[in-house]
Design goal:
The protein contains 7 helices and 6 strands. It has about 240 residues and is an alpha/beta fold. A 6-stranded mixed β-sheet has the order 3-2-1-4-5-6, sandwiched between helices. The longest helix is centred in the C-terminal third of the chain and has 22 residues, at about 215-239. The two termini are about 20 Å apart. Residues about 1-25 and about 220-225 have low confidence and may be disordered.
Length: about 240
C-alpha cells in the first residue's frame, strides 16, 4: 500500500509538470526537419514523404507556442526552405502542413549530401531554445560532402552540430531496408527505419511523439489513476 501511494503521488507530480503552462517568451523546442530530395526518390515517393510530414505534423504539433519548426531540403546541396517558425495556433499548423504539401523536389542531381543538410539545419537554430533537435530523413547513405557520422572537428557531422553548434541532439529516419542511419548523436538520440515510403508516415509519427514528448495512451491512463488517487485521498482526509 505504501508503494502504491508513493507511485500515485509520483504520477500526480509528473502530471502537474507535464501540464504546466509554457512561458510565452520562450520556445522550449526547436525542430529542424532535414528532408531528402535526392534523385533516387521518385515523384510518387516524394509525394508520400511530403504527405507523411503534413499528416504527422497536423496530428502532433502543439498550438501553444512551445515548438518552432524549420525545414531544410537537401540533395547534392542543401537549402533552407522554411526558416525557424513558432507554431502558436491552429493556423500555423495548417500553414506548415500546406507548406509540405506544396514543396517541390529539388532538382540539383541524384547525390545525397547529408552533411550539407546538417550544416543548413544548424544555421536555423537560434541557440535560445531549451532543446534544439535536428532531424534527418534519408533514403540512403551519403555519397557527397562528408560522412555525417564523423568526428566533431569536421563541419557537417552530427557530432559537430551537437558538440560545436546549437543542436542538443540529432535524430534520423532511414527509408528503405538497409538504409538504417548510423549518425544519430547526442543525449537520448535515436534513429528509426521505415521499410519504405508507404510506411514513412507511421515511423515519422513515432519519432515526433518521442521528440515532442507526446504521452502514449498508457501514460495518460497512469496520469488519470494518479489524479483519482489524489481525489480519493482528499475525500478521506475531509471525512
Amino acid at each position: 500500500m505504501k508503494f502504491m501511494k508513493q507511485f500515485i503521488s509520483s504520477a500526480v507530480v509528473a502530471g502537474a509538470v507535464a501540464l504546466a503552462p509554457v512561458s510565452a517568451n520562450a520556445v522550449p523546442i526547436e525542430l529542424a526537419l532535414v528532408v531528402d530530395a535526392s534523385g533516387s526518390i521518385s515523384g510518387s515517393e516524394w509525394n508520400l514523404q511530403m504527405q507523411g510530414y503534413a499528416n504527422a505534423l497536423t496530428a502532433l504539433l502543439p498550438t501553444d507556442g512551445s515548438v518552432a519548426v524549420s525545414v531544410i531540403r537537401f540533395a547534392q546541396t542543401a537549402s533552407v526552405v522554411q526558416t525557424m517558425t513558432t507554431i502558436a495556433n491552429g493556423t500555423d499548423v495548417t500553414n506548415i502542413s500546406n507548406f509540405f504539401l506544396g514543396l517541390s523536389q529539388s532538382g540539383d542531381g541524384g547525390s545525397t549530401c547529408i552533411s550539407c543538410g546538417i550544416i543548413a539545419a544548424e544555421g536555423t537554430l537560434t541557440g535560445t531554445a531549451q532543446r534544439s533537435i535536428i532531424d534527418v530523413s534519408t533514403d540512403g547513405g551519403w555519397n557527397t560532402g562528408v560522412d555525417p557520422s564523423g568526428g566533431a572537428g569536421t563541419n557537417g557531422t552530427a557530432a559537430w552540430a551537437v558538440d560545436n553548434g546549437d543542436a542538443d541532439v540529432l535524430n534520423a529516419i532511414g527509408i528503405g531496408t538497409g538504409t538504417a542511419p548510423n549518425f544519430a548523436y547526442g543525449p537520448d538520440s535515436f534513429s528509426l527505419l521505415a521499410s519504405g515510403f508507404s510506411d514513412f508516415e507511421d515511423v515519422l509519427t513515432r519519432k515526433l511523439k518521442r521528440e515532442l514528448q507526446v504521452p502514449e495512451p498508457a501514460t495518460l491512463g497512469l496520469l488519470g489513476l494518479g489524479m483519482m488517487g489524489l481525489f480519493l485521498r482528499r475525500r478521506k482526509m475531509a471525512a
